[in-house]
Amino acid sequence: MSIVVVGSVAYDDVDTTHGNVVDALGGSASYFAVAARFFTPVSVVAVVGSDFKAEDRQRLAERGIDLRALEQKEGRTFHWHGRYHEDMNKRDTVSVELNVFDGFMPNLLADQRRCDYLFLANIAPSLQQRVLSQVSTPKLVAGDTMNLWINETRDDLIKLLSRLDILTLNDEEARMLSGESNLVKAGRAILAMGPRMLLVKRGEYGVLQFSKEGMFAVPAYPLEEVIDPTGAGDTFAGGMMGFLARSGRVSESSLRTAVVYGSVLASFVVEKFSLDRLFELTWDDIDKRYRAFIDLIDSHHARWITQ
């Protein structure tokens, strides 16, 4: 089944200890869509400027991503500049230029309004609510947020949470939203605010999943070298949602498998700048790492039982 993602398509300047890129394709919707497309059809709702390169549109289109609702307006595309520390869990935002993204009013096409799977990427809660008012009976709605919306539009965000099946956010944002320093307490507090499930992204430390059925922890896939962490969270969400849409089931078991697939996709994207690693990725690569990931987290308990 297909997914509709509403978010940003952007250009990024990224500085890391491994080098830098300028005007590299980025944005939450871009990372999400390329990752999810390995599993199922994806349709993007976003806006770009007149400077958006034809070759970047082509790269997305060649992956089979539906770009009919990628609006192009006069002006510059959303631009973000980030600089990572040696500890890549920490970064500084050097500059943010919203450009045509300022004033973005997402409008879904007629067939998108009938979607079964919807991902509301990191945009203002008021815009996320606007999208939800346009869809009819989605099977699953997931959404992302960030510290800006928690600090400045908290009331709008709280209203949104009861309409989400899955909320994704990072550990710092979970503590900020809940007011709890302990992540387990934070997870329980956020679940009480309305979402059916919560996924707390912890960078190189993996993901914590919370639901009424219990808690599930997955480590990050160990890598010798991380080149660029930009978009890892959106890539994780794309892999996770992509698997759920392909399976057609939303259960505790399928969600746990989806979290592993999301972690696998996220482990690839950080190996190069921008979306370069995802664009060269094959399903065989994903399957091989998925199997290695399962072997990594499987304790093989029966092997260690002594008589």
Overview of the molecule:
- By secondary structure, the protein is an alpha/beta fold.
- It has a single domain (3-299), classed as UDP-N-acetylmuramoyl-L-alanine:D-glutamate ligase.
- The protein contains eleven helices and 13 strands.
- It has helices at 28-36, 54-62, 125-132, 147-152, 154-161, 171-178, 183-191, 232-247, 252-269, 276-280, 283-297, and strands spanning 3-6, 10-16, 19-26, 42-49, 66-73, 79-84, 91-97, 117-120, 140-144, 166-170, 197-201, 207-211, 214-218.
- Strands 5-4-1-8-9-10-11-12-13 form a nine-stranded mixed beta sheet, sandwiched between helices. A four-stranded mixed beta sheet has the order 3-2-6-7.
- Helix 1 (28-36) packs parallel to helix 8 (232-247), helix 6 (171-178) crosses helix 7 and helix 9 (252-269) crosses helix 11 (283-297).
- The chain is globular and about 55 Å long.
- The mean pLDDT is 94.
